Q: What sequence folds into this?
């Protein structure tokens, strides 16, 4: 996990990750100011160490002198060993209402230099002579990574072409979307895609994935939109990958704060949706992909407790992208988490959490458990309070009752995380259930819905589940697919187990293992 230091009033924003020579390189925005693009490195994709920042906003009068937004790093196809960072910039000239795309280059991923831009500082034509002289002297300082030299032949910063996209402030929403670049190359052709908006249609339904083709090194020409679903205000942080001769377009939608995808067999053909095109549940946002030595990984940031995505953000562990037998794109738990799995807990030591109502039975056969609660609610917990753990089992639910998992539950108050599993309809819902301050009346009952997710089951009533509680990070997988992925700090330790409401179940191959917590505090990973 990765976040800003507690109390710094800063938060991690959109991310981009590159894997190179055994090292993951993370580039990310720092909110709310957007003053620079930060850089961190990791050998395992979980623990990170900050290094020098990669890029800063431009000097006053530059095209990017107000804010830096989402970036994308990829190898330079024209210069072996060099890297390119396409990034979004905002100018004070329009108070940040027009987004443009610029370029910086590096030979080592650590030292970045902005490329030339066709942009002149036309501020203050009637400034007093003393002010004009001061501005001239200030420009004489050595060129730094903040500054993009002037070049009238440069294509940068890139702007939307008015033939295909909203490009002026008097159109649409009166601010121009042209951001979140991602470079895709196939054969000897390359394209830059970005979040843009078409010129026609209902104003809040114009969001599309824009395209510019690279016709020469650093030379781009506009093309019609790659994909316009006709539903969304923006398709943020688009990604384009190809797996097994199928193309997958991944984007994030503000409408529901989820990460979704579309697919096609050939660029130029319509992009299609499956009945379930959600890659990660609500709260996960601005996903980026990178390829390491094992395949594709999906990275994103997660916002704790609210719709404000400018604070309390962290980057959870990545997810491994895989294809189902039908060709559907799925997120799978990151195998790198296995290195934190340790001591096994004896799951034969299980007991009821409370005095129940009606008939209750618990039968143990090695790593298999038969549990029953004829009426009311009962949880069966394993011995000992645990902080971080991985719990997995195969579940057979009998009848039409309810079941779920409990995590970090206090045996006295029964406060903790309650994860309901509807194994007939394929619905998971995680809630934090705890007791408020004494004397607070009806507010003593604290109940928060944290996240929900769905899956399609070909075997209703049966599922193979895996729950990871790793520091503040919580993840549920069902039949190998990540359904829930979130962070919450309400409960940090307690008992693990399962619960029933008027149901019977059999658990096969029950496995509960402690995990070492993150080596760096979940609240203090950036400063190192």
A:
């Amino acid at each position: 996990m990765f976040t800003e230091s507690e109390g710094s009033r800063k938060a991690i924003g959109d991310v981009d990750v590159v894997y190179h020579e055994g090292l993951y390189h993370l580039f990310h925005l720092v909110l709310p100011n957007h003053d620079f693009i930060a850089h961190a490195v990791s050998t395992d994709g979980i623990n990170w160490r900050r290094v020098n920042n990669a890029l800063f906003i431009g000097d006053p009068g530059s095209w990017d002198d107000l804010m830096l937004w989402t970036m994308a790093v990829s190898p330079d196809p024209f210069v072996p060993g060099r890297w390119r960072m396409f990034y979004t910039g905002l100018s004070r000239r329009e108070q940040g209402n027009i987004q443009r795309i610029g370029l910086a280059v590096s030979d080592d991923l650590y030292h970045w230099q902005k490329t030339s831009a066709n942009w002149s500082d036309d501020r203050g034509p009637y400034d007093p002579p003393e002010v004009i002289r001061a501005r001239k002297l200030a420009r004489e300082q050595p060129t730094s990574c903040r500054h993009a030299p002037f070049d009238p032949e440069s294509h940068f910063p890139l702007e939307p072409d008015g033939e295909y996209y909203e490009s002026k402030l008097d159109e649409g929403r009166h601010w121009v979307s042209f951001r979140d670049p991602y470079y895709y190359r196939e054969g000897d052709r390359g394209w830059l895609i970005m979040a843009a908006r078409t010129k026609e249609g209902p104003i809040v339904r114009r969001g599309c994935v824009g395209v510019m083709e690279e016709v020469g090194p650093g030379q781009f020409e506009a093309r019609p939109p790659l994909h316009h679903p006709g539903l969304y205000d923006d398709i943020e942080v688009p990604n384009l990958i190809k797996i097994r001769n199928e193309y997958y377009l991944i984007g994030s939608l503000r409408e529901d704060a989820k990460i979704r995808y579309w697919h096609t067999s050939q660029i130029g053909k319509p992009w299609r949706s499956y009945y379930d095109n959600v890659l990660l549940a609500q709260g996960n946002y601005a996903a980026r992909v990178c390829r390491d030595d094992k395949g594709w990984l999906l990275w994103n940031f997660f916002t704790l407790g609210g719709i404000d995505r400018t604070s309390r953000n962290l980057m959870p562990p990545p997810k491994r992208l895989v294809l189902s037998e039908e060709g559907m794109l799925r997120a799978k738990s990151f195998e790198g988490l296995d290195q934190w799995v340790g001591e096994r807990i004896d799951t034969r030591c299980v007991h009821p959490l409370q005095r129940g109502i009606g008939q209750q039975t618990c039968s143990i056969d090695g790593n298999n458990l038969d549990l029953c609660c004829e009426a009311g609610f009962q949880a069966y917990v394993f011995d000992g309070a645990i902080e971080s753990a991985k719990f997995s089992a195969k579940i057979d639910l009998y009848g039409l009752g309810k079941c779920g998992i409990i995590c970090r539950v206090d045996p006295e108050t029964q406060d903790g995380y309650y994860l309901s599993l509807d194994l007939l309809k394929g619905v998971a819902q995680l809630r934090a259930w705890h007791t408020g301050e004494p004397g607070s009346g009806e507010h003593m009952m604290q109940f928060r819905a944290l996240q929900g997710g769905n899956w399609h089951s070909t075997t209703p009533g049966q599922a193979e589940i895996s729950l990871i509680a790793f520091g503040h990070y919580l993840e549920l997988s069902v039949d190998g697919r990540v359904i829930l992925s979130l962070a919450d700090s309400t409960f940090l330790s307690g008992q693990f187990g399962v619960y029933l409401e008027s149901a019977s179940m059999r658990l096969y191959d029950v496995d509960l293992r402690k995990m070492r917590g993150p080596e760096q505090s979940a609240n203090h990973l950036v400063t190192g």
Remarks:
- Confidence is low (pLDDT under 50) at residues 523-528.
- The longest strand covers residues 495-515.
- The radius of gyration is 26 Å.
- DSSP finds one helix and 35 strands in the chain.
